[in-house]
Design the sequence.
């Protein structure tokens, strides 16, 4: 089966490195950053595969998309894009995560109630089996536009793009309140580079002053793996809002430090004479990440705020995952 596809199924998608500002110049194309599951779609005849960025299969969770791609007039292709589910006209990451269910009957039910669609933004192989990795983005984009036009499906959407940096800045200012949660900048003259952070992503970050209410162990280890974070609601209860990213040993040091996937924030835990800068993601994104699916927008705590004493921190709500330890 693997050998029948135009490219290996473990081909990683091209990735993006984080930046604070949108790069400018005539050689850049800008697209919205979607709040969905990144995927590569492979087709060869009747065989269709959806693969997450981690390489794990996605097809069983989105049977309606497998059927859609199998019905397209193009007999073979490899495209790069994002799986999105819209609820009340806006992308819902929660609806996507609900698909990560072990029961096929549940998945089928959800596929009818909240059908997914795909937003495509690159093409790695065309209908003739021609590998496009060495072609420029400008060339690949023209082929992708023709592919989407021939598909003529409402559930296959071409990612809107612009070369106007002012328009991209407007998207960024509205990110988090509209359809996208940031901007991705791509060079028009570059080839597709699987697994390489050749693109640039600029995200609108939200800030929050969070309370550390517990921790989780590292897998098969007595050491702390991540911290549980909460925010007090209007009733004075501490609601669970997320986790820190996995804590890793710092090179050349002995104390644990949060591994940063976005810009490191200034939340400090003051305990045992150590200071640990941390950043966190929301619980739903951590759950999707543990399944090897989806990305996550960072919520960055503000700098310089002291935390309540450990004995004053209430237990987090029952939404915490199994195996969490309270302090």
Sequence:
């Amino acid at each position: 089966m693997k050998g029948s596809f135009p490219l290996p199924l473990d081909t990683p998608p091209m990735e993006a490195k984080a930046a604070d500002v949108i790069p400018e110049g005539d050689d850049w194309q800008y697209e919205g950053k979607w709040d969905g599951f990144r995927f590569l779609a492979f087709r060869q005849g009747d065989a269709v595969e959806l693969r997450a960025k981690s390489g794990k299969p996605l097809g069983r969770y989105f049977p309606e998309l497998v059927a859609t791609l199998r019905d397209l007039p193009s007999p073979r292709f490899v495209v790069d894009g994002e799986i999105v589910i819209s609820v009340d006209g806006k992308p819902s990451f929660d609806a996507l995560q609900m698909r990560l269910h072990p029961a096929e009957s549940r998945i089928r039910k959800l596929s009818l109630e909240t059908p997914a669609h795909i937003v495509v933004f690159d093409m790695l192989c065309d209908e003739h089996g021609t590998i496009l990795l060495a072609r420029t983005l400008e060339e690949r984009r023209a082929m992708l536009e023709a592919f989407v036009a021939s598909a003529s499906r409402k559930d296959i959407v071409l990612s809107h793009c612009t070369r106007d940096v002012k328009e991209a800045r407007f998207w960024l200012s509205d990110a988090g309140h509209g359809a996208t949660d940031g901007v991705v900048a791509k060079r028009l003259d570059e080839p597709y580079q699987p697994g390489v952070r050749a693109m640039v992503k600029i995200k609108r970050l939200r800030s929050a002053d969070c309370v550390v209410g517990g921790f989780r162990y590292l897998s098969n280890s007595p050491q702390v793996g991540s911290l549980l974070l909460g925010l007090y609601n209007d009733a004075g209860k501490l609601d669970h809002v997320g986790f820190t990213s996995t804590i890793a040993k710092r090179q050349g040091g002995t104390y644990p430090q949060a591994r940063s996937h976005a810009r490191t924030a200034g939340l400090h835990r003051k305990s045992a004479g150590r200071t640990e800068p941390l950043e966190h993601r929301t619980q739903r994104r951590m759950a999707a990440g543990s399944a090897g699916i989806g990305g996550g927008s960072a919520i960055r705590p503000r700098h310089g705020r002291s935390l309540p004493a450990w004995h004053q921190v209430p237990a987090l709500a029952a939404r915490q995952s199994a195996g969490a330890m309270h302090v």
Notes: The longest helix spans residues 137-151. The chain has two domains: 2-203, 206-326. The longest strand covers residues 76-84. Residues 206-326 form one domain.
